[in-house]
Amino acid sequence: MIGIKSYGVYIPYYRMSRAEIFNAWLTMPSPMKGERSVANFDEDSLTMAVAAGIDCLTGLKRKNVDALYTCSTTFPYREKLSAATVAAALDLRDSIRTADFANSLRCATIGLSSALDAVEAGSAETVLVTASDCRLGAPGGEFEQSLGDGGAAFLLGKEDLIAEIEGRYTITDEFCGMWRSHEDTFIRMWEDRMVHDEGYSKIMERALRGALDKAGLTMDSFAKVVYDAPADIRRHTVLARKLGIGKEQLQSPFFEQIGNTGTAMAGMMLVAALEEAKAGDRILFASYGNGADVFILKVTDGIAKVRNRGTFARQLNNKKMIYNYPTYLRWRNIVAMEKAKRPDLQPTSISNLRRNAKILLSLYGVKCKKCGTPQYTQAGLLSSYVMPQRICVECGAKDQFDDYPFYDKRGTIYSYTKDNLAASLDPPLTVAIVDFEGGGRAAFEMTDRDPQEVKVGMPVALTFRKLFYERGIHNYYWKAIPISRKS
Amino acid sequence: MSGSIKDRVAIVGMGCTRFGELWDKSASDLVVDAAYEAFEDAGVEPKDIQAAWVGASYDISAKTGMGLTAPLRLQGIPVTRIENACATGTDTFRNACYAVAAGIYDIVLALGVEKIKDMGFSGLGVGYYPGVSNTQPMLTAPGAFAMLATRYFEKYGLTYEEGKRALGAISVKSHANGSLNPQAHFQNKVTLEQVVNAPIIAEPLGLFDCCGVSDGAAAAIITRAELAKNFRPDPVYVKALQISVSADYGRVSTSYDFTEIKETYIAGQRAYEEAGIKNPREEISMAEVHDCFSITELVTMEDLQFSPRGRAREDIESGFFNLDGGLPVQPDGGLKCFGHPVGASGLRMLYEMYLQLQGRAEKRQIKNPRLGLTHNLGGQPGGCTISVCIVGLK
After folding, report:
1. In 3D, which of A308, A307, A296 has the Cα closest to residue A116?
2. Other CB atoms within 10 Å distance of the CB of residue A9
3. Count of alpha carbons within 13 Å of A42, Cβ hemisphere only?
4. Residues of B in contact with A481 (CB under 8 A)
5. What's the pLDDT at B3?
6. pLDDT tens for residues B7-31?
7. Which tens digits make up the pLDDT trace of A311-347?
8. Nearest Cα residue in chain B from A352
9. How far apart are CA A217 and CA A200, in angstroms?
10. Under DSSP, is residue B221 helix (H, G, I), strand (E, B) or coil?
């Protein structure tokens, strides 16, 4: 049997009240209800894929993953594999298959299906699939309020399953309801009635009924029915009524807490459903976009052994409201801000990045074989090539080190500052000297932090974020966050 | 160490431009102004200079010695450009002194210059640097030094308010001294309330905890000790010259506690030994130390053993380091008020010691100074390059 071995989710720490957006423009008669999730300025679909992946791999051996499929409509690059960067950040093996699935809101389930095929065919024992999105609606429009940012991840395989895949059904439909061309920053949509009636409602109904027919099951066979919502959230429940899905069967899309997270939405909802599921439950799971993918899941006894149980609720409740609406515009680079009068970034040295990928992306340091001291060296002063550790900082031994990962270590703040002079999209730039449990020290920018709460001795963990965007290159590195923010 | 620089070389002429935001001066103007003041002071002609060392941290001349020779039109002499962050000026002087002490040259020029205010941004472009891979945390220089203050307050149990006031007293003193100096970048007095209530630059450091970012140049004419009196009756002799460079361990090793600069202690110890000083608090008459930020000065008072560990605050608040105190520090206003054109700062500090020892410091004159100490800190806590120089009368 093939199925899901583990799940993970990522809900950004920041949320924005829809009323706040509404009040900024007054372009609608009234605001939408509730709030939406907002990726921090240093997050994108790639970092959220990493975060969901880390959550999914909690307590599991990362080197056992045989393939990574990342899925998003908002990857940072048109030409460059995001999965490769995510794999490096997740410290996966290099002898793995990687692929980016993109361009459709259904791409996550397309990736999921492909992963199941690979497992079924025996070409991979375990495949990690991530889904994440950070889509933009134009200011003043409905999407700006209705969208949310987030990610989900699933580890698929044949053994130690928490849910088996009993059936799959897919239809493809070239329906053009929503799109974004290579010239567009914001998503576009045709007239809503046609998009929802002719598109979402008809296609999803066809797909879900088709799946039931193929499996010989009826809607009452399912403890939960999980499918994503269209631009107009009301159509989600309208479809449920039409298909005879009971209230308690229907998985909430968390529209009033998170919003429509695009490619990630169905997956995030499935995580929420699995968190509540018990062995023997059947779940009907579907995702829409230029057709629809439907899966029939049966929850196994393994559900009791989920290592990161409660992750969805923890992340949903661990939140902070964004300071104000202009902050959102700034974080998403929708308005051009005055540039800080500070030195420009130098062109990124790809060769330096290449040489030090393990240090920078995978956050590996070393541990001295002689004195046992873990150590991580960052770029020095003024200029600053990342320096591979050749001589032990404590005992002076040369070239006698074992690799030592820091990405999964926790630490405490030894010293810190809040820098108002430094250029930052989230001032004051907060940097902490972090002393790691088990040894080692390094300086990290802090993120998802309230400047007021930062103090000496505060426990922190690490999170993978985007540091800079410079001459077309997205530069990713690790930042420190208060432990309470870590899922 | 077998050798010592003590009393082997002397300064017979010095020059120093006004420091500040010199919008109408280029680096070459500053070189000419500082060098010609030094020539005149020593009573020498440009053609008498046998070799020269020029220090600059930012680009003045495609990284060559031509930043000195071109503006002065000194054709064909040997010149070395020195670069060692904020210790550049003193290291430039040190290399010149060593060449003279080695007997290679009789009369040389050491000059430090910086034209920072042509770059179009606030502060210096240093601190924690994102690196050529653009993946490292970025922090400004005040941010990097604020790490010291955060930790110092924590270790010695100072409340934020107590810490701010101790640091504030340092800046109040430096502004008082700067107000007496017509060459200083800032010549205004400030009150403790103004200092502690100023906008925060990098917490806990506020605007007045940060030194001036300035343009400027300073120069010295150096000769062998035995030739010095041929130039002037009151040459200033070099007693010690030390550099201590960190292995950049402080952000890697948990052994570093961010309340001291170990390299300053090392350089100070070596300098005291070289100069034959047993009790620096008693024997040093005055000092110009690297007060890039107020916290740097506080920690330096302890590293140089002017104050016992953890006790600098008492000496600061009691006025021990004031112009009329037991050990005046920053008599010319320091980096805080005289300003900080990086490569020129070490030589600017020597300029003040030189004037004070010769009794030429006018309103700032300290009574009967015997030994003056200068100190620079290039880089940042945990990874820095330190210079210490001691000069005095014979």
Report:
1. A296
2. 30
3. 27
4. none
5. 87
6. 999 999 999 999 999 999 999 999 9
7. 999 999 999 999 999 999 999 999 998 888 888 888 8
8. B133
9. 22
10. strand
Preferred mutation among B252, B263, B386 to probe A, highest tally of A CBs within 10 A: B252
- Shortest Cα distance from B206 to chain A (angstroms)? 10
Dihedral sign for Cα A393, A395, A400, A405, please: negative
Say whether A420 and B253 touch across the interface (CB within 8 A): no
Closest by Cβ to A381, choosing from B255, B258, B379: B379
Helices (H), A34-140: 45-56, 82-89, 107-121
Residue with tokens 């006790």: B311
Nearest CA in chain B to A420: B201
ipTM for this prediction:
0.94
Gyration radius from chain B CA atoms? 19
| Helix runs in chain B, H state only | 27-42, 66-72, 88-101, 141-155, 160-178, 192-196, 262-275, 280-283, 294-303, 312-318, 334-337, 345-357
> Which H/E stretch holds residue B286?
strand B286-288
> Across the interface, do B119 and A473 touch by the CB < 8 Å criterion?
no
* Cβ distance of B134 and A456 shorter than 8 Å: no
Place of tokens 């910086």: B114
A479: β partners: A463
Interatomic CA distance for residues A387 and A376, integer angstroms: 10
Dihedral angle computed from the Cα positions of residues B17, B18, B21 and B26, in that order, rounded to the nearest 10 degrees: -20
- How far apart CA A25 and CA B327 sit, in angstroms, is 63
Q: Are B357 and B287 in contact (CB under 8 A)?
A: no
Q: For the segment B148-184, what is each residue's pLDDT rounded down to a tens digit?
A: 999 999 999 999 999 999 999 999 999 999 999 999 9
pTM over cut 0.90: yes
Contact across the interface for A383 and B129, Cβ inside 8 Å: yes
Q: Do B202 and A356 touch (CB under 8 A)?
A: no
> Which structure tokens are listed for B32?
């000419």
With 0-12 CB in 10 A as exposed, 13-18 as middle and 19+ as buried, what is B64?
Answer: middle
Beta strands B9-16 and B216-224: pairing type?
antiparallel
Rounded-to-integer distance, Cα B67 and Cα B44, Å: 21
Amino acid of residue A210? G
Residues of B in contact with A477 (CB under 8 A): 135-137
Q: Which residues contact B339 (CB under 8 A, 6 or more apart)?
A: B19, B20, B184, B185, B186, B211, B212, B213, B214, B216
Q: Which of A1, A31, A2 is nearest to A18 (CA)?
A: A31
- Cα A67 from Cα A129, distance rounded (Å): 8
**Cβ–Cβ below 8 Å for B132 and A385:** yes
**Helix or strand run (H / E) with residue A21:** helix A18-25
Distance CA(A468)–CA(A472), nearest Å, equals 10
Residues A417-451, buried b or exposed e (16+ Cβ, 10 A)? bbbbbbbbebebbbbbbbbbeebbbbbbbbbbbee
Distance from CA of A155 to the nearest CA of B (A): 29
Helix axes B262-275, B294-303, angle to 10 degrees: 50
Catalytic residues of B: 86, 340
What are the tokens at B192? 């403790």
pLDDT digits (tens, 9 = 90+) for B36-82: 999 999 999 999 999 999 999 887 777 899 999 999 999 999 999 99
